[in-house]
Amino acid sequence: MEKTESRIPDLLKRDVYVIAEKAKFVKFGNTYNILDENGNNIGVIDQKVPGWQKLLSLALSKESFPYTYTIADNSGNVAATIKRGWTFFMSKIEIYDANNNKIGVMKEKMKLMHNSFEIENPEGKVIASIKSTSAGLTDFSITGVSDEKIGTIERQWKNGVKEIAAQALFPGTDKYCVTIDPKYTNDPLKTIAIAGSIVVDMSFRN
User: CA-based, 20 to 30 A from 162: which of 2, 54, 173, 188?
Assistant: First the structure.
């Protein structure tokens, strides 16, 4: 089957995103709103939970369960998909673009001083990493193989993001600010970085 050429969707052409978990009274899966730096809702990240998994979650811990998330704009156009299979130790998460082409794999690593993910391209070559930069697993840096800075995933608002908007819209929920160096606008690493904020939340904070 011929691989469809990847094109970066409009949703993924920004440099700053606020990812805010949506509070639910009954929680079988997670939903995250995507906001711009002014607090405007520009998309949604939604977990797709099959019926059998909902039943199992009533009796078993969800930490090892497989998951699938879609990243979509407000019109429902899917920009990327995040997939993880059954996991019993270290997570391995696959990232797909809007055409369902695999663009990267995130592999969880445990080190003495920090938690991290290595990011590989579809051929298995390490191209970047996401590492915790705070003891409470609240802030993460995204760096290339030569240690160049690609972006950050933070729970502390910086870079002109309006904290009051995010706090007012989504009080008491997990929120992350994702910032990407503008030179990576048309790079698959942009998509992987946004997906990384969800992976971080699922892996280290849920």
Answer: 188
